[in-house]
């Protein structure tokens, strides 16, 4: 039996942005639902953070989710096992009050799991693990230890895995809790990462600048072989353009309509030609355009910035190679947090 796994959909994200919801919908209409229909998938596991805000869901975001996602799944006869994540639990210390249970009760095809629970996917027993907090931690760890399931799926915060590209988590629960399992799949971190047994599957689409060109999509799991593979989302919303005296006449801007674009200036000999280049991008109908002409980290004979490196990697390496007599680990964490906050601004 083949099962679709999707996680961290964050309906209502970016303050219920229409731009992002239109982008999300293209993925569902062109990739997700056609794949389910073509391959006869009848079961989906949602590993948490279905909605974005744990404090409240915008009515228009809820209507969007029902009209474009849940109604269609119900009409297709698809069962959606739904795990409570930290973004869908109202309180930080309990999962009892959660968005998916309160908002989706009309859907009898959407069972919600606020506590760790063993279920059957075809003939395979699977342990579902919602967000672990102070109230359910003892029960969760006990069931994780004593369950005879081969596979666990949850919304886990484990150290040693990438939270996003360039940032490996240095806190959270230890992964050796799951050594007895043959496969563990998790949501929570939005980028794909694994240690050969535990797999963070990543979310379906780009949401912030640090998601740029990082693979996104959903996954297909085989309950007989325990193998899985990714179905990638080909659509992007964030784009970097590197301007290097690029001739505007030859530059194709068609892919940037309704996209969020950053032009990074490497060489600008003529201001007039550069303005024509920028005008051409505006004319195609970009949603947002930023221009970056100065770099905070200047290249030198001692420190070279490589184009293949992402921003976090550059910052980490710059701090590591510097001669400052301070706690470099603490400085890296401060810079990563600052960068993450900056990425969440359009």
Give a written overview of the molecule:
- 28% of the residues lie in helices and 22% in strands.
- It has a six-stranded mixed beta sheet with strand order 4-3-2-1-13-14, covered by helices on one side. It has a six-stranded mixed beta sheet with strand order 5-6-7-10-12-11, with no helix packed on it.
- The chain is globular.
- The model has no long low-confidence stretch (mean pLDDT 92).
Question: Taking Cα atoms only, what radius of gyration do you get, to the nearest Å?
Answer: 22 Å
β-strand percent reads 15-25%
Helix content: 25-40%
Mean pLDDT figure? 92
> According to CATH, what is the topology of the largest domain?
Purple Acid Phosphatase, chain A, domain 2
Question: What is the architecture of the largest domain at the second tier of CATH?
Answer: 4-Layer Sandwich
Strand order of the largest sheet: 4-3-2-1-13-14
Give the topology string: H per helix, E per strand.
EHHEHEHEEEHEEEEEEEEEEHEHH
